[in-house]
Design a protein that fits this description.
The chain is mainly α and about 80 residues long. Helix content is about 80%, strand content about 0%. Belongs to the universal ribosomal protein uL29 family. Pfam families: Ribosomal_L29. GO terms for molecular function: structural constituent of ribosome.
Length: about 80
């Protein structure tokens, strides 16, 4: 199994890197769902890991978006 993604590692990435990683994980999630539907899924825990990794990335993206939106008004 792959190593879990740590939030600290995600915070260090740029928004473009996060988006790329998110797209890769969504593709993997689709493939895992497809494998499960056809009875070929052997790593049932990987689906859970991918789903949680997607949530972590979305959380970090949202936090960066909010921080970027509030930062300029705080300086004024």
């Amino acid at each position: 199994m792959a190593k879990a993604i740590k939030p600290a590692d995600l915070r260090a990435k740029t928004p473009d890197e996060l988006q790329t990683q998110l797209l890769d994980l969504k593709r993997e999630q689709f493939n895992l769902r497809f494998q499960r539907a056809t009875g070929q899924n052997e790593g049932a825990g990987r689906t859970r890991e991918v789903r949680r990794a997607i949530a972590r990335i979305k959380t970090v993206q949202h936090a960066k978006k909010v921080a970027g939106a509030t930062a300029p008004s705080a300086r004024s």
